Amino acid sequence: MAKKLPKRSEDYSKWYNELVVRAGLAENSGVRGMMVIKPYGYAIWENMQAQLDRMFKETGHQNAYFPLLIPQSYFAKEAKHVEGFAKEAAVVTHYRLRTTADGKGIEVDPTAKLEEPLVIRPTSETIIWDTYRRWIQSYRDLPVLVNQWANVMRWEMRTRLFLRTAEFLWQEGHTAHETREEAIEEAERMIDVYARFARDWMAMPVIRGVKTPTERFAGAEETYTIEALMQDGKALQSGTSHFLGQNFAKAFDVKYLSREGKLEYVWATSWGVSTRLMGALVMTHSDDNGLVLPPRLAPIQTVIVPIYKTVEQRQAVDAKAREIETLLRNRGIRVKYDNDDKYKPGWKFNEYELRGVPLRIAIGPRDVENGTVELARRDTLSKEIVPVSGLDERVEKLLESIQHDLFQRAKDYRDAHITRADSFDEFQDILETKGGFVLAHWDGTAETEARIKELTKATIRCIPLDMDTCEEGRDMLTGKASGRRVLFAKAY
Amino acid sequence: MAKKLPKRSEDYSKWYNELVVRAGLAENSGVRGMMVIKPYGYAIWENMQAQLDRMFKETGHQNAYFPLLIPQSYFAKEAKHVEGFAKEAAVVTHYRLRTTADGKGIEVDPTAKLEEPLVIRPTSETIIWDTYRRWIQSYRDLPVLVNQWANVMRWEMRTRLFLRTAEFLWQEGHTAHETREEAIEEAERMIDVYARFARDWMAMPVIRGVKTPTERFAGAEETYTIEALMQDGKALQSGTSHFLGQNFAKAFDVKYLSREGKLEYVWATSWGVSTRLMGALVMTHSDDNGLVLPPRLAPIQTVIVPIYKTVEQRQAVDAKAREIETLLRNRGIRVKYDNDDKYKPGWKFNEYELRGVPLRIAIGPRDVENGTVELARRDTLSKEIVPVSGLDERVEKLLESIQHDLFQRAKDYRDAHITRADSFDEFQDILETKGGFVLAHWDGTAETEARIKELTKATIRCIPLDMDTCEEGRDMLTGKASGRRVLFAKAY
To answer: What's B302-413's CATH class?
Structure first.
């Protein structure tokens, strides 16, 4: 029997790391800060991708692909963007290696130096707007609604699997519009798509909001965000959508001939979610026994484990198990019949619990006689004996219930962890004892925001759009007047 | 009206480049040798990916993801591999940029130099086998059947859209096995998957074969290939599958405890196809009017173009067109109703011809009265008036016919361009006048192979598996004895 996971209550961070590795989601590679996404983890990511891609296409977007490497000079074109992104980046300076003088190793060939260094994309606004200049001449060419699935790189010093890695996978939408209003509408549409995806597929409640100027994307005029709450009381920014104004159009000289015959700069948005969502998924639902996966994203929704001792028992159980497998598959359920005899049933029970398979069906000789199976739920760890007759319909409904219950449980937890604070003492106390989101007044200045962060490590996650927080009050620290509460939390 | 494409007969290369750009498949970016894959081109690639991915999963493979950057020292571990891949590669040497002294630009920060340079993967055997060492301990862990969809980079000096670009997209399968036989079986299974995909989806006939030692993948013991013939008589290597022996297991020390309790090195394969297939697709079917796409890969299988003058006509035509759109969509046909009134029907006809949409339905006021439409085939450029009644079934069957006919046409061309040569004069003559594949005797030495390449630019594409070429003969150049003919061609 494999050793148990660390408990969440004892070391949440250690629990997370061990779980991610042992459940087969990801692991560190031999390259600093870069992870290997393992097959089981990648299968969950593929399910996420498939659904997001559908939602992007339903909202009129098409996929395309832009270069991995961006000339260094492109970053210098948008003043704020360069501050935010060009600094901690992987830089390609040479294009050849050569054998060392002793003939035993290889080394960078100093004669093969690039005239201009190339940066591995940390995000693609610059290379894409350099391309859009060629695509857009007239209002007839607008809107451009393009998305890219890609790898990106940011040279992070402290990395954690899925949450913060030097290389990660993501999608980045980049759209171009005739008017300011249309671009804002697009940015809002996409943050809504993300919120719906989090709710309906990840069973993860999120709060939609806008970022303060300090927390905005480098080069954006407005950044929309969805913020989720993890089980340890810390917030996790799970997706962002940016209204970029005309900043990139001006930096890359992208103009269009308007319906009125005038030459105008194009309006832009960009929006993205990444493999960080995998971390959010793990930390929203899982428990001390392992992963808990929402059925809609689970690579295996139901596993069937046969139990037998003799050869005769094995044959009878096997026949029945295959029948059930077919029954479930015909209902469109992702089912795995695990008849691998290298492992014992007890080992398999633990393994699928660790991997978060929503439902487990165990079937033994007595079940075959009685026309029953044992059905176990991963989320509640409850078990019951049920008849084989009608099992497919039962499983289908149960999977829907689990999806619903997981969301409700996460939402109850989240709602119980949104607390109002009216003084700075109270604010600190909540952060240190209870954790979670804190709704408090803020005077609207970057100075106060920075001071609060310095004193408490909490940041303004967003000015919420999903709750009415408008009311008169006074900033916790400065006592200056404030017209609405904003949402604070410590965050990943 | 846009200007016509160059004719294939006049300048095949120019025709190809202009077609790829103007049909919306891809274009050069601002970064040397790197392309932008445009939405229409990417949609075809997505259709290819979806089908290949299904075929990989049906043969038991799972997807995963490995790091983009590989430490330079990894390449030095496999002696042949380093020769083949570590040389012309993009090398990351620094991890930070800084503002220049004048405050106006940015530059590489010399203090942020990596201890060991990192290479952007040209292929992932090294990083993956470094990972497999952690995954594989016992025969219980085998086989490992993993595929990765990724971008890779090879610093090519002369690039062409899709055919040869510094960055390209591909999939790379990497499998690990207990025995030599099992690995060979896997390598052969995957070249068969590629051949089936080419035939059934791309409507592209290919010849399966094995490469000569000179043309093998760097680090392989056997390389299987599929070779296709382009319309200009040049061959295009379209996919390869490699039996890697124990070379990478030895280089990265990957051993497993066998069923007999012995510690053994693992056996390996790798296999891949890339966005190069897009170039193959274009050059197999297209004509002087533009793209010709096989229906199974076409993003739009049928386009409906309305024709009208008055408002009343427009309403009547629009109603009928929408009805037909629904009819076709319900049959699972990818249909586009183009009612954009910014463009005239004539413009649209040209545009969809250029983009290779297999079927075009035009509908005007008289068609509405008569209950007919005009149906035009892209491949034959033929048109006919057909009744709306039964149109969905007709379109469905016609799409199947087109898929079949495209394959047959390409196969007829290919078969007519496999020529036997028995003397070197004859060989040169065929290459220079007729082109295509030439079956000729070869003495089996690398020296002769190199001389033939030097004299004619033709290479041995493969020792074919799909045709019986065993017969006694003599090498064209050296006159030495040969037991079988091999397949030569000039190639992309």
So the answer is: alpha beta
